[in-house]
Design brief:
With about 375 residues, the chain is of the alpha/beta class. The chain has 13 helices and 15 strands.
């Protein structure tokens, strides 16, 4: 195939272009009406009460940590198999990061390993957990919530891979990722390879009004213009910086793109499932491990495992198929090694990393392109 096939790719429609151009011709490029429109539409899609649009997914994580008052006394648990930002947001606030190993079947943070870690420390030692809906596989937040309540912990759900994904709770109810029923806060990313692409952008969702109001201030320098919240009021121009915040706003131009992209999110998720099912059907019987998934999987990624990962990766690149590896375990990055982590700390995560490979997965992947990928994998000397 002459044209390169990446592991992920944004899709641009004429509606997307028209939506952006309309904002460019309007009076508001930032801090205008499209921000609230995007927030309201996203909250409705996810099924939560409140949504706060921000500059990117990392900003969303940082603001969550700030809203939950993470500080140098905070000890927070997350997974090694995630993008580094899931851990970094705690470090930004001078908190302490702890990892627990993954479930080798789902690649998610293993709740039993988390329980063991919590019980290995004095009561009250830990303050929070950051589970990740890795690859689009929804973590069972009902179980995490029960454990968190037993130990007085908050939960930030990193749902960047899973808008539209869900798990089924003990009562048989679908719990969509980020709906706020179990996590205190959840975050999403609108990076170009994600389900909903804004170029850059992020969203925080919650059902907690107090946290919601804190987030609104924190994303805009800690400043409020709401007369009901001010200490003084000198006139229509007046505003107050009431806490130390950041400029983590997202412009209306990107929100307009997000609204348009959100309009076909369900269609995109259905296509992702079609692609996943075809991979699973076609690659069955090969000496590779295929992902475990159900109807609630968000399929940001389709991850296989092979003992010849490097060889297969290079072989596919020669055929213009650009797979990716998700992720280098966070504790093995030089920064975290300097914090005292080392190879061998989380063997299941490290074994996963040695074998994982993300195949092309995006809604505009054509049938012919996918068959080319499948045939290339089959032709490899496993």
């Amino acid at each position: 195939m002459n044209q390169a096939i990446p592991y992920g790719k944004q899709a641009l429609s004429q509606n997307d272009i028209d939506a952006v151009v309309a904002v460019l011709k309007s009076d508001y490029w930032t801090q205008g009406p499209k921000v609230a429109e995007f927030e309201n539409a996203f909250a409705q899609y996810i099924g939560c009460k409140y949504a706060v649009a921000v500059a990117n997914g990392t900003a969303a994580l940082h603001l969550c940590a700030l809203a939950l008052d993470v500080n140098e006394k905070s000890n927070v648990i997350t997974t090694p198999i995630t993008f580094a930002a899931s851990a970094n947001c705690i470090k930004y606030c001078d908190g302490n990061v702890f990892f627990a190993d993954i479930d080798p079947a789902t690649f998610l943070l293993d709740i039993e390993k988390v329980k063991q870690l919590i019980e290995s420390k004095p009561k009250g030692f830990f303050t929070g957990i950051v589970p990740v809906d890795f690859a689009g596989h929804a973590a069972n937040l009902e179980a995490f919530r029960q454990m968190a309540d037993e130990h007085g912990l908050w939960i930030i759900e990193d749902a960047c891979h899973a808008p539209g994904g869900y798990f089924t709770d003990s009562k048989g109810t679908k719990q969509h990722c980020g709906n706020g029923n179990y996590a205190d806060l959840a975050i999403f990313s609108f990076h170009p390879v994600k389900h909903i692409a804004c170029g850059e952008g992020g969203m925080i969702t919650t059902n907690d009004e107090i946290l919601y109001n804190k987030l609104l201030k924190l994303r805009t320098h800690g400043i409020t213009k709401d007369p009901a919240l001010m200490h003084e009021n000198h006139g229509g121009w007046y505003m107050e910086m009431q806490t130390l915040g950041y400029n983590y706003r997202i412009p209306d131009v990107l929100c307009a793109l997000g609204i348009s992209q959100l309009g076909r999110a369900t269609e995109g998720l259905e296509r992702r499932h079609e692609i996943a099912d075809r991979y699973t059907e076609a690659l069955a019987g090969l000496p590779i491990e295929l992902p475990v998934y159900g109807k609630g999987h968000g399929f940001h990624l389709y991850v296989i495992k092979t003992k010849k990962r490097k060889e297969l990766y290079d072989y596919l690149r020669e055929k213009n198929i650009f797979c990716q590896v998700h992720y280098i375990p966070v504790h093995l990055h030089p920064y975290y090694r300097e914090q005292g982590f080392k190879k061998g700390d989380y063997p299941l995560s490290e074994t996963y990393y040695d074998q994982c490979l993300s195949l092309p997965m995006f809604p505009t992947l054509t049938g012919d392109e996918q068959e080319y990928v499948i045939e290339a994998i089959k032709s490899f000397n496993h």
